[in-house]
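Aim 2, interim progress: modelling of the fe (ii) ion-bound target.
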Amino acid sequence: MSRALASIPLRDAVAHDAPTIEEPPSRWIDAFQSVRAETERRAASLSAEDQVVQSMPDASPTKWHRAHTTWFFEQFLLIPHLADYQVFDERFAFLFNSYYVAAGPRHARPERGLVTRPDAQGVTDYRAHVDEAVERLIATADAAQRDRIFSIVEIGLNHEQQHQELLVTDILHAFAQNPTSPAYDASWQWPRVQTGSDFIELPGGIHAIGHDAQEFCFDNELPAHRVLLQPVRIAKQLVSNADWLAFMADGGYATPALWLSDGWNTVEAQGWEAPGYWRAIDGGWFTMTLAGLQPVDPAAPVCHISYYEADAFARWAGKRLPTEAEWEVAARGGALADAFGVVWQWTRSAYSPYPGYRSAEGALGEYNGKFMVNQMVLRGSSLATPDGHARVSYRNFFYPPARWQFSGLRLAEYD
Ligand SMILES: [Fe+2]
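Predicted structure of the complex, ligand included:
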């Protein structure tokens, strides 16, 4: 166990103070070093053996996250913009490209766990090589280059923060396959949340959603636009484990009428009878957490549920999931407790482009737009999201059966 990790819980990690494009190079070097250090802090308690394992095709090894985020800077920043840059290892582009077709061929995602070389130290060396070059580029860029360079650094840092969260969710999945239920951080505890079942009235009418500020956002949050909402009541609090236990006790996982067809097929195929990581032991429910196997806390928010489960629970409760527009309008109005930093909240909105959406130019245009089919939007952020990363317009997205993220829900109902 790394002392650094134990002494700085995930959600209390020091947020990097994001600079704006106009700010001087020193601010960008500080931000770069801060985000890069946070990745290493999250990996610090993990052995070389921990770092190589891939527990399912959707999850990637820690070592891969550390290398892929580094490749991102090498591929999109250093190769095009640093004239004398020497690529660290020509083979790494194949190993550590994720899904950028325009950036060339890449290794098969489900086989990332088979890559034992470079080893963890090799990835550390790769990171150091790229860090030095990025800092040199930032420091020496002339005024004409700065806007372009700083904007690529900015997306690279936001990209790395996304992988910081995945690093944690993926190692939790790996540890959950280990019969000894290892702890990622033995001192980790659930964030305290507000409990209750209060509903907030949201008036119908025209509202604005989408990113409307100067700070960074991903292209999928744009453009800001108007939406027409019906009057709705939205839950102030997250759904709790106690709520979920009531759903289970009432036969929630055994009642096909509560489920979408694809959802019920998944329940049957996967044998689901409880949220992800839950285990029945001696008549009680336990769940795998970042601190290892723990009794399910009735007061904690339900977590590691799929869209299908969230939808079925809402139907059982006589309610529904909010749309992402309803969620955003309520969050902007300050109506939601624990909107951020606990669990991502499934919405009933399909992940689709906003009216007028345009993806970025070039390979980075592959970042979001090409995934806008067959996935559902989650809003807020989770306990594994780096501080300062998410915002009220942030759109996360996963396939409906996914439940290895820190995903939960809040309810809504028509007024
Ligand atoms: Fe990535």
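The longest strand covers residues 344-350. Residues 1-9 have pLDDT under 50 and may be disordered.
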